[in-house]
Fold each of these.
Amino acid sequence: MSNLIDIFFGMALVNNLVLVKFLGLCPFFGVSKKLGSALSMGVAVLLVIVVASAVTWPIFHFLLVPYGAEFMRTVIFILVIASLVQIIEMTIKRTNLTLYNALGIYLPLITTNCAVLGITFINIDQAYTFSESIIAALGAGAGFTLVLIIMSGIRERLDMADPPLAFKGTPIAFITAMFLGLCFLAFRGIIR
Amino acid sequence: MGTRTNGFFPVIFLTLIVFISVAALTLTDAITKDKIELAKEDEIARMLITLFPQMDGFTYDEQNDLYIPLAEQQPLGHAFMAEQSGYSGVISILVGLEPDTTLRGIRIIFQQETPGLGAKIVESFFLQQFPGLAVDDIKLTKEGGKVDAITGATTSSSAVVEGVRKAILDKLNQLGRET
Amino acid sequence: MHSFTKNFLRGIIRSNPTFILLLGLCPTLAVSTSLDNAVGMSVAFTCVLLASNIIISLIRNHVPVRVRIPVFIVIIATLVTIVDLMLQGFIPALSKSLGMYIPLIVVNCIILGRAEAFASKNSTTNSIADALGIGIGFAWAMILISLIRQLLGTGKLDLFGRHLFTVPGLGDNPVAIFLLPMGAFFVIGVLLALFRWMGVSTGE
């Protein structure tokens, strides 16, 4: 049990996707300007990461490995993710129109989100069991959402501040990410 | 040749592309598979040779998960990997034993500890404390052992020490059961 | 011939993938800790982009619209896997330091973006020009960032195992933070601001 907790917090904080592993940067800087969109994107990504992990893990271990076809990993995983995103998008559209409108265009964008594919790879490379993979996915998605929310809060404030003209907009966002990363450094050492 | 957007053609096209992809990849895999195996063995050899400089080859004991470095077909000892959670992530340690199972030495294979502090576990001043230690001495000095922790990096130092000691005890146990 | 040069040059400065389009940042920031990585990644990336653009522009008139994206994805994923396997077999050291960022090239928005926006609509020659231009644009951005990070983070400059030079003073007391992720954010933030200040507008 403690191992699962380690994995969850490890993925969410110590090895945070955006600040440590550099995964999911595109949506991070593109979507983090407003709290609402940040939250929507975070939740959507969390959902896709968990489902993708749940689907790709058995495919790898029960289909690819027995046939010695580990090299098909990249192709199969990305196809699975692309299909999953389509399916999830259609399901949400049919069952909860308000949610669908809230998530809007963010869903299809998740296919090219390095975070999703990255986590599916990490699950394999770290030789996680199925439950460990799901927990890792949950942790990663939670960490991603957390950072996204924090970032959007800061950026909403930044919009009203007055940085040097050259820094306005994206550059200052990167500097902010640096400070955020520095803060998250403090989480090292909580896993023991 | 037109592109019909209805009917089965799109699906057939996609399936065709997938087939070509699988074929291309299977071919590539066939070409590179041996090279990749060789590269991995090479990497392990390079790791082992830092502990056993006279080595000219090695074998892998799959049953016991042990590497046996060889010099002219004679075993020089044993080596195996130990893993322990450090300050920020897992530390991978290579442990080398003499033929009489005393500790020959350790090497840090992978770590992501704090640069300038915990990362110093890879430096020789820390590692050279290990050769020749009895299992019970593989503890930090403040716990009655013979290994001085790195100043300001107690967690990393203690992780290495614990990892090595546990791995040796486990391995000796495992081998004891065999003979 | 004119359009070839035009398409080629565009990718280097005006549509620079890293600094202008702000695409494909994940690998750029992640592996830019050393010059070796930068060069290796740039070459791998450009190979995939080139091959992808060529193949897609060759079949562009035969691809049914409905399955366009999945087809592109499969092609790119295949190319990436080939590069990945080749690296593991022939340049294992590079494969180890670039790690999972090589297979992640498949979700690099740049490649899919170029396939969708350009290669599927332009001639093969122009697609080659585009790929080379974007590749070089990506490369010099990577190399610049890696240079800064490696020099400040380790105080030394090494290329393929050959030591080039050491910054006096920094060699013994490098600013290690530049090697960490936050250093990368800092470098690119400052660089973007610098370019902006020099009058180059970023696409936002």
Note: Chain C has one domain: 2-197.
Amino acid sequence: MELTGAQILIKSLEEEGVDTIFGYPGGVVLPIYDEIFRSNLRHILTRHEQGATHAADAYARVTGRPGVCITTSGPGATNAVTGIANAYMDSVPLVVLTGQVALSLLGRDSFQEADITGITLPITKHSYLVKDTKDLARIIKEAFYIATTGRPGPVVIDLPRDISVNKARFDYPKTVNLRGYRILKKVNMLQVNQAAQVINQSRRPVLYVGGGAVIAGAHREILELAEKAGIPVTTTLMGLGAFPGTNRLALGMLGMHGTRYANYAVCECDCLIAVGARFDDRVTGKIDAFAPKAKIVHIDIDPAEIGKNVRVDVPIAGDVLTVLGELNARIDVSFEERKEWVDKIDQWKREYPLQYDQTGDKIKPQYVIEQIYEASGGEAIIATEVGQHQMWSAQYYKFTQPRTMVTSGGLGTMGFGLPAAIGAQIGRPEALVFDISGDGSFQMNSQEMATAVAYQLPIKIAILNNGYLGMVRQWQQLFYGNRYSQTDLMAVNPDFVKLAEAYGAVGLRVERPEEVRPVLEKAIATPGPVLIDFVVDREENVFPMVPPGGSLENMMGGCAE
Amino acid sequence: MRHTLAVTVHNYPGVLNRVAGLFGRRGYNIESLNVGTTDNPQFSRMTIVVEGDNLFIEQVVKQLHKLIDVIKVSDITDEPTVNRDLVLFKVQAEPAVRGEIMQICEIFRLRIVDFGRRSLILEATGEKNKLDAIEDALRPFGIIEMVRTGQVSMVRGRR
């Protein structure tokens, strides 16, 4: 039987097990939206295409299944660009369907035409411009396969209008045939043995765990390795949740805003085991001074990451889960043998804890995060925007489960958090979802309040409102002689409580420390979306801090003077 | 060091864009890039010449492998290869100097492919060094225009 392209699209999505898509309609995707109207597919209408991509991205992050979003051509597609780049940088499986002008109008600067496959070339794992309806099913099959396997990433499918109108036989392929696409399946046992030997012989090992461990679902294997062999674990921003933050061996985050003890451990270790991490500049600081005494074992599914930024002693290209399984079986050193090292770590933790001073009558932003942690029993999914509040969330919320920290790590996208909280709540309806936000970031996608209200999503938005673009202000204070160029929003911020109410959400304001916890409890108990405007100490800084380009052992602040 | 990469890619529209774009955004400098069809119409073959140390080339090769449309990447720098470039020169050739130019043609085995009233078009094939030498030899006469194909390479023997 012949079906239209739009029908083939919907059927193919069903074949892929997709039940929810995020999107925004428009001219050239009308035939597709007509089929969506008639299908069982759940379509979440956001208020901006960027919101749709971020929501689909977060949906993928919390569920582990691919996120799907759809936009119209031209501005609809270009609005999705930031969301695509965001997913690319954090290796999120996303299938982005963009409308395109009809084939006959392509390349003529037609109304709402944009070369979206061209524009997104450097920020997609792969992309397709569909030229014939009979290729559509195969392309969708390939797109999902590419997006979800190996190192995941976004795939764009550009759909000219006539592709969705024209008819073709529908026969969903069972397999894909991609000669140029290889996924590493076999593990090089020689290298695993070598890694085991290095780890067994080391005295002061550290596990450095990134987002790849979360994606691979290797949290149990990491816990096993750490506890079996007495290896302290530091995670990157993306790796939070891959190791329980409450464990004795947890060092928290490393790098620019990492804990002192994590950074000291990295500087002192004689063996660094990097798992699904990519030695980002925010992690390493001055690259030549990173883990200077360590033999480096690097496990990653993407061979191009190995040796990209640092020299590696034992490279292992392969699936993190498989590699760790093999590696753990070859570890024959006990926790006891590492006692001296673990004691040293404990001592650093006692000497240099994360700290702030909540004594005055101004609310400290870190205190809000700690109270969210306690009020949620540490069980919430935390979406964040980007800036100071993001770093405080990473420092003070003790993530214990993978896929519970939803944050824009690589691209650092302000405005990610609110649509991400929406996508996360839709992916995990039973979970308590917070968007921890700043007053600056919140305004970058605040229109998605309407989405949260429309679907009555019980997300809790905690704005740490300091009336500044706080992270930029912090840099201006520290490195630009206190010249707060274009970062003071105090006088021009909207009334966030009224804004929430205007959208039909509940808005609450907190101005005193003792109100923080009761209002949080109230917000959690309130059905539907709640926005809480925490008026916090304006000039609080994120510490410790490794100045840009500095080495990890030279941190500013965050310790008792 | 100069490296020669032999890259087999899908013969789809946009593939050249993907490869060239990769080099551009990661800051890899292409010295020459040649692309053409192969005995199999499904595939194209690129010969890419790029300058860099071994670590850098390793990263280039790994990044190329990540492109879905790239089937095979071989660094053939250290293999025994035949390397060829084709170049066309349009040279000023007033009657007084034509004899001299034709002598150069004989020495370098250049072919005269167009005979104008005031200019000649000459064709040469060979390795980069030879073509550079020809260019130097012709420059005093005035090169009006020059085009080069970029290097194509093939590994010798049965491989």
Note: Chain B has two domains: 2-75, 82-155.
